[in-house]
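Recap quiz, item 2
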Amino acid sequence: MKRIFEITLGILTAIGAFVDIGDFVASAATGSRFRMGVAWVVVLGTITIVLFAEMAGRVAALSQRASFDLVRERFGPRLGGVNLLASFAVNLLTLAAEIGGLALVIEVLTGLNYLFWVVPLGVAVWFVMWRVKFTWMERIFGLTGLALLVVVFGVWHAGADWHDLLHSATHPAVPSTETHAVYWYWVVSMFGATITVYEPFFFSSGAIEEKWGRQDLLVNRVNTYFGFSLGAVISLGLMALAAIYLYPRGISVDTLSQASLPVSAIVGKGGLVLLLIGAFAAFFGAALETGLSAGYIVCQYFGWPWGKMFKPKEAPRFHLVVIVTLVGALLLVQSSINPIKLTEFSIVLVAVAAPLTYLPILLLANDPRYVGDKTNSRATNTAATIVFALMVVAAIAAIPLLLITKGGG
Amino acid sequence: MLQGLASARTCLAILTLISVASCVGPARTFDVYASRAENSVEQAQSAVQTTLAAIDVAVAKQAFAPFVSITIQDANETVDGAESGFASIQPPDQASDELRQEVLPVLSDASDAIALARIAARRVDVESLAQLRPRLTDLSRQLDQLVEELT
């Protein structure tokens, strides 16, 4: 039973980080524009995040220190500082996007403008981070997020032509109404949405909070393999529903309500309720992860006490960083920037910043001083090097594509 | 210190480029103008189809009222943005003037029809929503024809 509950860390990370607002929007948007033509990116991104999150968890479990703590020690304050700045900036944008996404979910449930909900939601996120125990946080939001599996039911219920969907996934084509630049912009966005940079940091810090050790390496592996794969299934389900219902109608997803329309039309009111509950839990989980990650990375870099396990008076700077980051994110959303546009920008910036945050994890996982005899296998290193090279290409292409396509066309 | 300033300048430049990327620039040739028209028509088509789908789920009682209302409100904002964005572009030549006269009335009609749907959805008036369906279907056909002409 204990082991089952331990798996929830993986599920929370997967549901809350994999299927966050960025993934929700990118999956539905790409499905509505390219059918399953971007599905291969979800697979590639999942392999990437599985590889690197497993490494981050392994490093944490064996060294008893989280990734950012080691980044500074191993790479020095300057490179560590650049890494910190990039990760923090992307983290802040992502947190703002998640809170915006939460507010949009409440908006479609109540009909009241999303801006009305931003501050109360910010307070709720802070309260949960402050008062709710880490394990309960995982269980509540991770497991409630499983309601998102309704999209998989939706694909089955729609009587989808599986052969056609598979053909679309294995033979990606750019429709006549789209340009190749727009297609590649969405490829990079989808990749950014899948490999969000805070995931490995949250995962490794969470492992320390849960007091993982060598005996938990199996749990680490199961969490990453099972949790992120589950997230990928949901992501592909969202894409498939958009491909089935929105693409033939010429509906291009720009809003959360459009992304939810297929479930409403195919599964009905109950399905829509499940989708929105699942989305709320997933976005809330992601907001918790990004908010906590902000505190984790800053405190780990400066060597301050960190973690939810400490009370505010024991780790005041950790709790202060979390609050200040949260307030910054709230101000960003409250400034009435469109949360979906913010999300789209944030996932592109994730693609830009990813190599900077992923490279140290790859190096640390190969350093016997931190992982002893559990360094990466040759197969892991080969796979990680290939996906890292692709990550670098995506990072270089991201901003030019953003400019050429004017933010996705 | 200097390095920090350089990083800040780089960040500012990237943010400015990102902001500029979202703006509507001038159209200097007919081809560019036609491409902008195509984008606007596609956005309007997406909004009209979204409204039609929202009406369908409302009539079939497959969604709750606030969801339908917000979906159509979002579609209304999209079509308004497409219409005002296209209207703000200066047509560069005679052919562009003619294209403008062909496209703008359809965008305007789409905007009006979706606004009516938004009002009906806000009042949870499913009957009025259903009555708007034929008009929106006809608009969708006109937008389809425009896309075909422009592609």
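Chain A has a mean pLDDT of 90.
The CA atoms of residues 162 and 334 of chain A lie 42 Å apart.
End of item.
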